[in-house]
Amino acid sequence: MSAASRGGNGAVSALLRNSRRVCSHCARPPTSSLARPYSEAATTPKTTPTPPEDIPSTRYRIKAGLILSRPPLLTRAPTPFESAFYLYQKRLNERLAAPFRAPLYFPTDTARALDWRLKQRERHGVAAKDIGRYNPRGRVAWNDEVLVGSATSTPEYVVERLLADAEVRVSEDGEEISAEERVPVERPVGRRSRADEEGDVRRLDRRMEETVYLVVRKGEEGEWGFPAGDVTTSEALHETAKRTLAESAGVNMNAWIVGRVPIAHHVAEFEDAPETGPAPAAKAADAGDESRFDGEKIFFLKGRIMAGQVDLTGNKYGYTDFKWVNKDELRQTLPYEYWRSVRNMVELR
Amino acid sequence: PPPLTTTQVRHATFVPRPRRPYTFTQLVQLSDGSTFTVRTTMPTALLRSSRDSRNHVLWQPSDRSLRNVEADEAGKLAAFRGRFGRGWDMDAGAGGGDGAAAAAAAAEGEGGGEVKKTDEAVAAADADPFDSLTDLISSQYKGGQLGGLTAKEEQQKEAHKKKK
What we know:
The structure holds two protein chains of two kinds. By secondary structure, chain A is an alpha+beta fold. In chain A, 28% of the residues lie in helices and 14% in strands. Chain A is built from twelve helices and seven strands. In chain A, strands 1, 2, 3, 4, 5, 6 and 7 form a seven-stranded mixed beta sheet that branches. The radius of gyration of chain A is 36 Å and the shape is elongated. Chain A starts with 7 loop residues before the first helix and ends in a 7-residue tail after the last helix. Mean pLDDT of chain A is 87; it is low at 274-286. Chain B is an alpha+beta fold. Chain B is 34% helix and 9% strand. Chain B has a three-stranded mixed beta sheet, with no helix packed on it. Chain B starts with 23 loop residues before the first strand and ends with a helix. The A-B interface holds A 75, 90, 93, 96-102, 105-106, 116, 127-130, 155, 158-159, 162-163, 165-166, 185, 188-189, 254, 306-307 and B 17, 19-27, 29, 33-37, 42-46, 62.
């Protein structure tokens, strides 16, 4: 309904405009004395109530923040149950699958065939490298389970056995290479990086199995939080978030903001400054707008970082420190109410 | 023929199972050193991959070092340039990682000066690629203008040699 049609006076014109079948008497709104005879106010003249002047209106500063996360770089390590299950399935496969035909891959009387046969002999005839010693045929075929506490099922054992098998044991001439002359296979880099060992919270290659989030703070006594900036009237939330990130953390980051819709919001009420004492330093630093704003509402957008690192030098927001923390550390670092606002939108891992 | 019976059989009967090949666990190492395990019919324990999405420009758009590299396996592109010159190159960066310019300069026998000259020639040619292309398609093109002879001229040259 348009603004002109609202209200009793407008109803007449609206009714007359919409349907020509209503007579002008019916279109007129009913008079108050006839409509509400039971009302005590029907007889007394009504006065329009004046709006009360002493109800304060709350004003909130609108801010756009960015939950910048680095997704996990490694898949999760399998649980002991998963490892045991995989070993069980591999041993079961020994019984059910067709036996391995070596001449198909290793032509007879070649160095590679000798190399394969030598390694298979060391494995007591088992073709697979990661299942330990198990013969699916024969008297002991029932013994397909490992003892409690054995390391056969662990992923470290599997990788170690595969790397040991990758060594070349027979030279091209067909001669067995002695232990001193064997070229060891280069071990791959482990799952825990140097940043994990040293506890460096600023590096992006820590906690590679989990999502890590960027938190910043102002000074030593400031509270940790996601980078946030004031939204100007000409900007959308995602534009503010992008600008805030560039202004606070530098431009040396390949970051991507996922969509334009915020994923979380936090409403912070400013504490009223006591009339006798000075205002708290942290809150009064909001550019002298303490008197105008009762609080702030921060809308967080989701961002992903692909490359680069945070550089806080010369940032406009006064941030002095940053760190990349996983979900558990985030819960411990953020203030309680702040964490409650964002806790449902952090990743599971 | 006896009627169809529906009595149960209590002893073990043959259940045909699918004939599945023997599978191994394999450690795959990508070009950036990351590893993962896969199940495969290959008996190789460790598979090292030299070209994959980790060092391909399509999957690493922010990696500048991958952009200028031109993969010239078997030297076919260098042979093409020797015959038809650099007028057909797509951009100035092509062939930079190739080392073709350096190789050509070394072959000519001069030092750093020649390398600079060829670079300038390349830059000049690429600065106005339209001109070099029009030269090639025009009838006034003479062999050796931009590097090599056309196929037709090569044939004529050989026929001339044979006559001799």
